[in-house]
Design brief:
single chain; mainly alpha; about 0% strand; transmembrane
Length: about 90
């Protein structure tokens, strides 16, 4: 059987070993950072609601307090998202 394509197979770019090495290093870096980041996010998601309580007790009438509360709430949501998979069995 012959190849019916007008282009030879050599024209299709093959990934170089340098590209593979760079990708492997990136994946290694992600695996190295993932566990500590999930750990910190998980525990931040647990601790941040305790910071919300005094702000709510003070009241949200002051714009600075309201902005602080909303910022902490957004950080808490992000911490919940990034820390949700912490300590799960594969």
């Amino acid at each position: 059987m012959s190849n019916s394509s007008p282009l030879p197979n050599e024209s299709i770019a093959q990934p170089s070993p340098e590209t593979d090495r760079g990708t492997d290093a990136f994946h290694r870096l992600v695996r190295t950072i993932k566990q500590p980041a999930q750990f910190l996010s998980f525990w931040a998601a647990i601790a941040l609601p305790f910071v919300h309580v005094p702000l709510l007790a003070q009241g949200l009438g002051d714009p600075t307090v309201t902005m602080t509360f909303l910022t902490l709430l957004a950080i808490n949501v992000l911490a919940l998202y990034f820390g949700h998979g912490y300590n799960e069995s594969p």
